[in-house]
C-alpha cells in the first residue's frame, strides 16, 4: 500500500513546497532517496532474508492448520457469556438492533464473537458475490454465498460485517446454511456483535469437521461518502458533476461491503458479479467473463472471472464512467490505465502506463515468477485515503500519484510518482501473491516494496542514482528521526484488537525494514564469523530504536596506537530516559582510517557488547577515523572531539577524500547528535562550513533537512537573524554560481537528461536562498509572478514553480493570493493544482489563512484528501501556526470522524500540526488537549507530545550555546 506524503515544507516562513525534497524536513511519508552502497549482493541478501522469513511463516501456518485439523481445541472457548435471540429477518450490524447479547439466558457455554479474532473453526474456500449498485442514491444490495470448510466441530458461524443490513434469503424463515447435497441446517438464532464488527449465526446442531457447507446471506448498504469500504467520489467534466464508486478494503474494511472472513490468513477465491446502469463501466480484479443487458430495465450485468486465492482486503471493484488507454506486455498481459476522460485524452496517464509495462517485465525477471493474472488495471481516482492500493489486478491510485502532465509537472513530482508505481507493482508479488498471515507481519511486504522503490526506479532511470544514493537521505535519515524517539516501537508488533492494526502501518514498518535488512549479512560470512543470523536479526526487528556507536582512538598507554575503543548505546533524543535503557545490538561496523590525502584502510568490526577494543591499523596524530562507510548500517556514529576536529578539517581542505555518501552521513549524524545532546551545538555548524565548496546534491540535501529542522525551532526567537544570516552565507556562493533554470524548449520537464542531479542541486539551493531571505532570490520570484499575471502566460520553470508560487504569495499583496486561488480552480493538471493550493498557505495575511482553513473543511472547493495538507501547511507558516493549532483543536471531532479510520491520515495531521510547537505554553496546550479530547488518535498523540517536549527541552538546554557559537564562530579548528 502506498501512503500519501506529508512532509514539512522548506520555506523559511513555513510555507510548504509541494511535499518534495524540502518537505522531507521531518519524518515524511514516502519520499525519494536511498542508501549509499547497496550493491547487488545486498539486494540478493535482503531478498533471501525476506523470503526465508516468509517461508518460515508459511510453514508455521501450515503446521497450525494441520494442528487444528487433528483436533486442536476450538478458540471459541475463550469466553463464556450467553447471547440473545436475534430480531427476526434482519439485523443492522452497527446499530442497537442486533446488539442484545445478554437479554436472554441462552445455553451456549462459549461466545467466540467476544474474542477479537475469528475462532478458526471454519475457513472460507470460495465467495460467490453478486452486487447491484445504485449510483442515483448511492446504495447497493448484494448476495453472497460462501463455501465453508469446517476445521473443528462448531455450532457457531462467526464472520465479519460492518454497516450492513443483513437479510436472510427467503425472509425470516429462510435457511441460509446448507451442506451441498445434504440439505439445510436449522438456525437457532443470528445477531450482530458491533463491538468486534462481527455477525454470528448459531445453529441447532454442529457442523462436522472435514465437511463443506454453504452460507447464503443477503444485505443492503450505503455507498459511503468517506474514504473506506465501498465509497463514492466525484469529478467535474465540462461543468457537469460525475460520480464514481470504488473500494478500499485494506486493512479491515471489506466487511463494510459484504459479510466475510476479514483476516488476511483466510484466503479464498472470489467470483464477483456487478449489476449497474449501463452508462457506467465496472472493473474488478479479473477480466469480465460474461456481460448481459436486462430486457426489463436495460441494466448491464458483468460477471468477472474467478480470482486466484487471495485475502479479502485485496478484492476490489469500481463503478465509473472513465475511459482508458492500454498496452500489452510481451507475455500477453493487458495493462490499462483508467481515469477521467479529459485526463486520458490529454495523455496524463501515458507515462505511468509506459513504466508499468517495463516494471512487469523487470519483476518477472528479477523474482523468476510470472505475473499471475491475465490483466492489470491502474485506476486513477480523484480522492483516496492513500497514495495507492495494490489490489491484485486492479491497483487504485489517487490522481496526484499517477497522472503526469509533462508540460507542468516538475522532475521531483515525476520521481515521486514513479516510486509510487514501482512500489505498488512490486506488491503484485510481495503482498498479493505472498501475503502476511497477520497484521503484525505487515512489515514483510511493506518493507520489501519500499526497498524495491529504489531498486525498481534505478532499473527504469539509472541516472537518477536512486539505489546507491537517494536511499540514504529519503529512507535512512528520515526513519532514524522517528526511531530515535522513546515512543518508537519494534518492527514486529503484536496485534490483537482491530484498533491496534492501524499502528503497524507507519514508517517503522515501511522504512526501517528496508534499511535494517540491507546490512550486509554476506560480510560476516566472508569474515568467517560464527554469528547466529536469527539472533542478530531479532535484535533489529524485535527491539525498538537503534544504537549510536562511539569510536575513540585508544588513549591507554598499555595498548599501541592502532587500537580503538568502540561503545554502543541506545540512541534517544530524550536525554532523561537514556540511563534506563539497556538495549544492545550486534552491529556490523565498517571503519576507515584516513589522512589529508587518502583513505588508507577499511575494515569490518562486529560489535556485540557495550564496550569493546579493536585493532584497525596504525594511526598518527593527524589520522582520522570514519565509521559506517557509506552508511550501510542502521546506526549513528559519534567520535571523540579530536576526531571530529580532524574530519572537519578534512572537509574544509579536501572534501572529495571522503565519499559523497559519507559527507551526507556526517552532516546528518552531527546535527542529530547535537540535537540529542551528545555533541556541542557548534560541531555540526562548523562541519557544514565547507558547503560553499560542495558540488554534490546529496550533502546539500542532508544539510538542508537539518537546517529546516533548526528553522522550525528558531523562527520565532529574537535572535533568529543570526541563524538565517549564517545559512545564507553558506548558500550564497553556490547559489549564485548555479543560477536559475531557463525555460527554453526542451530545457525543463525532461528528467532523463544527464544533468538531473545538477537540476536537483540547483532547486535545493534556490529553495534555501528564498526560504532564508536572499533578496535576489525574492526579486526573481516576484518577477516571475508579475510576468505571469501581466501576460497570463506561465513561464515559470516547472521544477521550481512551488518555490516561486510560495515566495510570491508571501511577499506580494492580496491580489496575488486571489490570482493563485483562481488558477487553482481553473487548472486541470493535478500536479499543478497541488502546488497552487499549497502556495495559498504561504500568505502572511491571517485573514486569508483563516478563510482557507474554513473553506477547506466546510466546502467542496478543496479535495477531501487535501484538507489535511492545507491545515499542516498553514501550521508550517509562522504567521499561521497559532491559527492551525487552534483550528485543529476546535475541529478535532469533525476531523477525527472524517479521517480517523484511514491509515496514516490522523497521524499525518497530528504530527504535521504539532511538530512546530516549541514553547512551554504550546506544550501545556497539547497536554490539555490530550487529557480532554484527544481520543481516537492511537500512538500519534504520545509521539507528538514527545516531539514537542523535545523541542522545548532543546530551547532550555541548547539554544543559548547555539546562539553563542553563531555570535563568535571559531576558525577551522573546533572551538
Automatic annotation (TrEMBL):
Enzyme Commission code: 3.4.11.-
Q: What detail does the entry give on cofactor binding?
A: Binds 1 zinc ion per subunit.
GO BP terms, alphabetized: peptide catabolic process; proteolysis
Residues at site: Transition state stabilizer?
510
Region entry Disordered, spans: 73-115
Instruction: Please give, as recorded in its UniProt entry, the membrane topology of this protein.
Output: Single-pass type II membrane protein
- Ranges where the ERAP1-like C-terminal domain occurs: 624-946
Which residue ranges traverse the bilayer?
42-65
Query: Where in or outside the cell?
Result: Membrane
Q: Name one GO cellular component term.
A: membrane
Which Gene3D superfamilies does the record cross-reference, listed alphabetically?
Answer: 1.25.50.20, 2.60.40.1910, Neutral Protease Domain 2, tricorn interacting facor f3 domain
Known InterPro entries for this protein?
Answer: Aminopeptidase_N-like_N, Aminopeptidase_N-like_N_sf, ERAP1-like_C_dom, M1_APN-typ, Peptidase_M1, Peptidase_M1_aminopeptidases, Peptidase_M1_dom, Peptidase_M4/M1_CTD_sf
Alphabetically sorted, this entry's keywords are:
Aminopeptidase, Disulfide bond, Glycoprotein, Hydrolase, Membrane, Metal-binding, Metalloprotease, Protease, Signal-anchor, Transmembrane, Transmembrane helix, Zinc
For the keyword DNA repair, the answer is no
- Keyword Protease, does the record have it? yes
Q: What is its main location?
A: membrane
Q: Name one GO molecular function term.
A: zinc ion binding
**Which PANTHER family has this protein been placed in?**
PROTEASE M1 ZINC METALLOPROTEASE, THYROTROPIN-RELEASING HORMONE-DEGRADING ECTOENZYME
State how it assembles. Homodimer; disulfide-linked.
Q: What is this protein called?
A: Aminopeptidase
Amino acid at each position: 500500500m502506498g501512503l500519501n506524503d506529508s512532509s514539512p515544507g522548506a520555506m523559511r516562513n513555513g510555507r510548504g513546497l509541494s511535499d518534495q525534497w524540502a518537505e522531507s524536513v521531518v519524518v515524511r511519508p514516502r519520499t525519494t532517496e536511498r542508501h549509499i552502497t547497496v550493491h547487488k549482493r545486498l539486494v540478493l541478501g535482503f531478498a533471501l532474508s525476506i523470503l526465508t522469513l516468509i517461508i518460515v511463516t508459511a510453514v508455521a501456518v501450515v503446521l497450525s492448520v494441520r494442528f487444528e485439523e487433528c483436533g486442536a481445541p476450538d478458540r471459541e472457548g475463550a469466553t463464556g457469556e450467553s447471547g440473545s435471540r436475534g430480531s427476526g429477518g434482519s439485523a443492522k450490524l452497527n446499530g442497537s438492533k442486533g446488539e442484545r447479547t445478554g437479554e436472554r439466558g441462552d445455553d451456549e457455554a462459549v461466545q467466540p464473537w467476544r474474542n477479537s479474532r475469528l475462532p478458526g473453526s471454519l475457513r472460507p474456500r470460495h465467495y460467490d458475490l453478486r452486487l447491484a449498485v445504485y449510483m442515483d442514491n448511492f446504495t447497493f444490495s448484494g448476495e453472497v454465498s460462501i463455501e465453508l470448510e469446517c476445521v473443528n466441530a462448531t455450532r457457531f458461524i462467526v464472520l465479519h460485517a460492518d454497516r450492513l443490513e443483513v437479510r436472510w434469503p427467503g425472509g425470516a424463515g429462510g435457511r441460509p446454511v446448507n451442506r451441498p447435497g445434504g440439505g439445510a441446517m436449522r438456525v437457532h438464532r443470528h445477531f450482530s456483535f458491533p463491538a468486534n464488527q462481527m455477525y454470528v449465526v448459531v445453529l441447532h446442531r454442529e457442523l462436522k469437521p472435514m465437511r463443506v457447507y454453504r452460507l447464503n446471506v443477503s444485505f443492503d448498504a450505503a455507498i459511503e461518502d468517506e474514504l473506506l469500504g465501498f465509497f463514492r467520489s466525484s469529478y467535474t467534466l465540462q461543468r457537469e458533476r460525475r460520480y464514481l464508486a470504488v473500494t478500499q478494503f485494506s486493512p479491515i474494511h471489506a466487511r463494510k461491503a459484504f459479510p466475510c472472513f476479514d483476516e488476511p490468513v483466510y484466503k479464498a477465491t472470489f467470483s464477483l458479479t456487478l449489476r449497474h446502469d449501463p452508462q457506467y463501466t465496472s472493473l474488478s480484479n479479473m477480466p469480465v467473463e460474461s456481460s448481459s443487458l436486462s430486457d426489463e430495465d436495460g441494466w448491464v450485468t458483468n460477471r468477472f472471472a474467478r480470482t486466484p486465492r487471495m485475502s479479502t482486503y485485496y478484492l476490489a471493484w469500481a463503478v465509473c464512467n472513465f475511459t482508458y488507454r492500454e498496452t500489452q506486455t510481451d507475455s500477453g498481459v493487458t495493462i490499462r490505465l483508467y481515469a477521467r476522460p479529459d485526463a486520458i485524452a490529454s495523455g496524463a496517464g501515458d507515462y505511468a502506463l509506459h513504466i508499468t509495462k517495463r516494471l512487469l517485465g523487470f519483476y518477472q525477471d528479477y523474482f523468476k515468477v510470472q505475473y499471475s493474472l491475465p490483466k492489470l488495471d491502474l485506476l486513477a481516482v480523484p480522492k483516496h485515503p492513500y497514495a495507492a492500493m495494490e489490489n491484485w489486478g486492479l491497483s487504485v491510485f489517487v490522481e496526484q500519484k499517477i497522472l503526469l502532465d509533462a508540460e507542468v509537472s516538475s522532475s521531483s513530482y515525476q520521481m515521486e510518482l514513479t516510486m509510487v508505481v514501482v512500489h505498488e507493482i512490486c506488491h503484485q508479488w510481495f503482498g498479493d501473491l505472498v501475503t502476511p498471515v497477520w497484521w503484525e507481519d505487515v512489515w514483510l511486504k511493506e518493507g520489501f516494496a519500499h526497498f524495491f522503490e529504489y531498486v525498481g526506479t534505478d532499473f527504469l532511470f539509472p541516472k537518477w542514482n536512486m539505489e546507491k544514493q537517494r536511499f540514504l537521505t529519503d529512507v535512512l535519515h528520515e526513519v532514524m528521526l522517528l526511531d530515535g524517539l522513546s515512543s518508537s516501537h519494534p518492527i514486529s508488533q503484536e496485534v490483537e484488537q482491530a484498533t491496534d492494526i492501524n499502528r503497524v502501518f507507519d514508517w517503522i514498518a515501511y522504512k526501517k525494514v528496508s534499511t535494517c535488512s540491507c546490512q550486509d549479512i554476506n560480510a560476516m560470512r566472508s569474515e568467517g564469523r560464527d554469528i547466529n543470523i536469527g539472533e542478530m536479526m531479532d535484535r533489529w526487528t524485535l527491539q525498538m530504536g537503534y544504537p549510536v556507536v562511539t569510536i575513540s582512538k585508544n588513549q591507554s598507554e598499555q595498548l599501541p596506537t592502532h587500537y580503538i575503543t568502540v561503545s554502543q548505546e541506545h540512541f534517544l533524543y530524550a536525554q532523561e530516559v537514556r540511563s534506563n535503557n539497556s538495549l544492545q545490538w550486534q552491529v556490523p561496523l565498517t571503519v576507515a582510517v584516513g589522512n589529508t590525502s587518502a583513505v588508507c584502510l577499511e575494515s569490518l568490526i562486529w560489535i556485540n557488547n557495550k564496550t569493546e577494543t579493536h585493532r584497525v591499523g596504525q594511526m598518527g596524530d593527524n589520522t582520522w577515523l570514519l565509521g559506517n562507510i557509506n552508511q550501510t548500517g542502521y546506526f549513528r556514529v559519534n567520535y571523540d572531539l579530536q576526531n571530529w576536529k580532524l574530519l572537519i578539517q578534512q572537509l574544509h581542505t579536501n572534501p572529495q577524500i571522503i565519499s559523497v555518501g559519507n559527507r551526507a552521513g556526517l552532516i546528518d549524524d552531527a546535527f542529530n547528535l547535537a540535537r540529542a545532546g551528545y555533541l556541542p551545538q557548534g560541531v555540526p555548524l562548523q562541519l557544514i562550513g565547507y558547503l560553499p565548496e560542495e558540488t554534490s546534491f546529496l550533502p546539500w540535501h542532508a544539510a538542508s533537512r537539518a537546517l529546516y529542522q533548526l528553522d522550525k525551532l528558531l523562527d520565532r526567537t529574537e535572535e533568529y537573524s543570526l541563524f538565517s544570516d549564517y545559512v545564507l552565507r553558506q548558500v550564497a556562493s553556490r547559489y549564485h554560481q548555479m543560477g536559475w533554470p531557463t525555460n527554453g524548449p526542451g530545457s525543463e520537464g525532461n528528467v532523463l537528461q544527464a544533468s538531473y542531479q545538477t537540476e536537483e542541486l540547483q532547486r535545493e539551493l534556490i529553495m534555501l536562498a528564498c526560504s532564508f531571505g536572499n533578496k535576489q532570490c525574492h526579486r526573481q520570484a516576484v518577477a516571475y509572478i508579475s510576468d505571469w499575471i501581466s501576460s497570463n502566460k506561465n513561464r515559470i520553470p516547472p521544477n521550481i514553480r512551488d518555490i516561486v508560487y510560495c515566495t510570491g504569495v508571501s511577499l506580494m499583496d492580496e491580489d496575488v493570493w486571489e490570482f493563485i486561488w483562481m488558477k487553482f480552480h481553473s487548472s486541470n493538471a493535478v500536479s499543478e493544482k497541488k502546488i497552487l493550493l499549497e502556495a495559498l498557505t504561504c500568505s502572511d495575511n491571517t485573514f486569508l489563512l483563516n478563510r482557507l482553513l474554513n473553506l477547506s473543511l466546510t466546502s467542496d472547493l478543496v479535495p477531501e484528501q487535501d484538507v489535511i495538507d492545507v491545515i499542516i501547511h498553514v501550521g508550517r507558516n509562522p504567521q499561521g501556526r497559532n491559527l492551525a493549532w487552534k483550528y485543529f483543536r476546535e475541529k478535532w471531532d469533525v476531523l477525527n470522524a472524517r479521517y480517523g479510520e484511514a491509515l496514516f491520515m490522523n497521524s499525518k495531521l497530528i504530527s504535521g500540526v504539532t511538530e512546530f510547537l516549541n514553547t512551554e505554553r504550546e506544550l501545556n496546550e497539547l497536554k490539555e488537549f490530550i487529557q480532554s479530547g484527544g481520543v481516537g488518535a492511537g500512538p500519534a498523540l504520545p509521539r507528538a507530545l514527545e516531539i514537542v517536549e523535545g523541542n522545548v527541552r532543546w530551547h532550555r538546554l541548547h539554544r543559548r550555546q547555539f546562539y553563542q557559537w553563531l555570535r563568535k564562530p571559531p576558525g577551522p579548528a573546533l572551538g
